């Protein structure tokens, strides 16, 4: 009986040393998932409505209205590529209408602070200008744009946007340079 007890004692010690794990303190699990407001592959649609103001027409062109729709896709959490199309209308002191439809493509950089997002866009492309029944196409166009948005939900952000646009058209061998600025209310749908 003494041998059996000794044998069982030796087996239990051996089994305890084989199956025992070393305890080096409490278990710490590192969660490698980090929630980002925007990540690679995220996309958004932008819609904005506002006013457009001529900057270099010496009072001969009145402010008008503009609307823009755009699409962008994030390459990183702070940089996206995309494009947009705008439509604007303004009238001159002689009641002639200027309609512009710029189509631009470019890059957006967007720093964020909590739920606040501050996009900075640089886009270029072409525009169609219609002035007093004459159409000028293509007119080379560059836009620099900044905004401030608040992310209401995961899918929606709302804010203010402004851009400065330079558009140059050629007519009868001469170049006409137009400078315009906008102020808009904007909504973005993120998906």
The number of helical segments is 1
**Shape type:** rod-shaped
- Termini separation: 75 Å
Question: How is the biggest beta sheet arranged?
Answer: 8 strands, antiparallel, barrel
Strand percentage, roughly?
over 45%
Nearest-integer average pLDDT: 86
Low-confidence stretches: none
The percentage helix is under 10%
Order of helices and strands, N to C? HEEEEEEEEEE
How much is the radius of gyration in Å? 31 Å
Structural class: mainly beta
The strand order across the widest sheet is 1-2-3-4-7-8-9-10
How many DSSP E strands?
10
* Oligomeric state of shown chains: single chain
Task: Describe the protein's architecture and organization.
By secondary structure, the chain is mainly beta. It is 9% helix and 61% strand. It is built from 1 helix and 10 strands; from the N terminus they run H-E-E-E-E-E-E-E-E-E-E. It has an 8-stranded antiparallel beta barrel with strand order 1-2-3-4-7-8-9-10. The longest helix has 18 residues, at 2-19. The radius of gyration is 31 Å and the shape is rod-shaped. The termini are far apart. 26% of the residues are buried.
